[in-house]
UniProtKB/TrEMBL annotation:
<dbReference type="InterPro" id="IPR003369">
    <property type="entry name" value="TatA/B/E"/>
</dbReference>
<keyword id="KW-1133">Transmembrane helix</keyword>
<keyword id="KW-0653">Protein transport</keyword>
<feature type="transmembrane region" description="Helical">
    <location>
        <begin position="6"/>
        <end position="22"/>
    </location>
</feature>
<protein>
    <recommendedName>
        <fullName>Twin-arginine translocase subunit TatB</fullName>
    </recommendedName>
</protein>
<dbReference type="Pfam" id="PF02416">
    <property type="entry name" value="TatA_B_E"/>
</dbReference>
<keyword id="KW-0812">Transmembrane</keyword>
<keyword id="KW-0813">Transport</keyword>
<keyword id="KW-0472">Membrane</keyword>
<keyword id="KW-0811">Translocation</keyword>
Length: 92
């Protein structure tokens, strides 16, 4: 449709916000949005660091191994139960 750059899109959003919110409330709203963005960035940074530590300590590898073992056990149980039901059906 229209080809706008990122700067022009931001400008359009700011103009719409100025019209909808009003010039008195706009600085407070922008300040609050900045605080939310700061909290989101801080949270994502902490999450990334936590995941890095989790992987570096080898805990992730242990988790994957246990999940694979659980998956193998449940899939073998399902196969065994299917074989048993197939045998019962043959016998009947």
């Amino acid at each position: 449709m229209f080809e706008f750059g990122a700067l022009s899109e931001i400008l359009i959003i700011l103009i719409a916000a100025l019209i909808l919110i009003g010039p008195k409330e706009l600085p407070r709203v922008l300040y609050q949005c900045g605080r939310w963005l700061q909290k989101i960035r801080h949270f994502s940074q902490q999450l990334g660091q936590g995941l890095d530590e989790y992987v570096d300590e080898g805990i992730f590898d242990e988790y994957v191994e246990t999940q694979n073992k659980k998956h193998l056990k449940t899939s073998s149980k399902i196969k065994t139960s299917k074989k048993k039901t197939a045998r019962k059906e043959k016998d009947e």
